[in-house]
Design goal:
This protein is an all-alpha fold. It contains 5 helices and no strands.
Length: about 80
């Protein structure tokens, strides 16, 4: 990704388009403080694209074959 694009703050509409999440869901995440955001004195909410990217990709779920390989490695005496 272009570093300059990752520095431009996104408003809620842009963040929703960037992530594919709805504005309402983003507002809920903000309210619960589950997603990083910025709220300067004007009261509007802004997001850093890099932090949104990291938020989306932090919840990786392993595929069944990956779990099976890890279990087999543990059973056979060494973790992968």
């Amino acid at each position: 990704m272009n570093d300059i694009l990752l520095e431009k703050p996104l408003n809620i509409v842009e963040a929703a388009a960037f992530t594919g999440l709805s504005k309402n869901y983003l507002y809920n995440l903000v309210h619960m403080k589950r997603i990083p955001f910025y709220k300067p004195e004007n009261g509007k909410i802004y997001f850093k694209p890099k932090e949104l990217h990291d938020f989306i990709y932090r919840g990786r779920v392993s595929a069944d074959y990956e779990l099976k390989e890890k279990a087999e490695a543990i059973i056979n005496g060494g973790e992968k």
